[in-house]
Amino acid sequence: MTDPGPVAGPVPEPPDAARHLFGDHLPAAVAYAGALAGDGVRHGHLGPREVPRLWSRHLVNCALLTDLVPEGAHVLDVGSGAGLPGVPMAVRRPDLRVTLLEPMLRRSAFLVETVERIGLADRVRVVRGRADDPTVVAELAGQEWVVARAVAPMDRLVTWCVPLLAPRGRLLALKGRSAADEVREHRNEIVRIGGGSATVTELGTTTSEPTWVVSVQRRRPPSRGRKRR
């Protein structure tokens, strides 16, 4: 008999925080939650134990990240995985254009199907590749906004993400409660790779798990003025 793989429980009802955040776009958020709890679990993109807290730990927290992004922005989600945080951001904010960058074939296929299923294909695209691949860098460099969640420690993350930013573009990295410690530990690497000072912002609601966002802006390159003799 073929092993059916992990089996998810029923998709929980969206809490009030989700209803408030997504508003008229809640049906798309519910459809995405269903995709995560269904194919997402079956294909190993999400652990079955995460299903009961899909809203509080995943969709709501990721959607809150849009509070830090201006209207009409283009956002690159590096290491998107199952679409977090890029898909909830796009669902909440129809004005955003989002690129989901994911190296794994199965996850990329899941993202393409899910984006089409929930009606986001006109403004969300999926790119299969690695952030440190020169071909990807050549295609995607010059981003104003790059986001990442659960991808890597800050020293590696900035090495992958800062080169994709335009001068004064910004990386928003979703982290845990030790975010400030991680920034202090890797401050030298952040600066070495071209990032400015990193700030930490706490996001969350009374019905969601708190999350911390590390914000790093890419420094402008020094102006090439005439050298003094």
From TrEMBL:
Binding site for S-adenosyl-L-methionine: 79, 84, 149
Cell compartment(s), UniProt: Cytoplasm
A single GO molecular function term of this UniProt record: rRNA (guanine-N7-)-methyltransferase activity
GO cellular component terms attached to this protein's record: cytosol
Family: Belongs to the methyltransferase superfamily. RNA methyltransferase RsmG family.
Protein purpose: Specifically methylates the N7 position of a guanine in 16S rRNA.
Protein name, entry field: Ribosomal RNA small subunit methyltransferase G
Organism, as annotated: Jatrophihabitans endophyticus
Name of the gene: rsmG
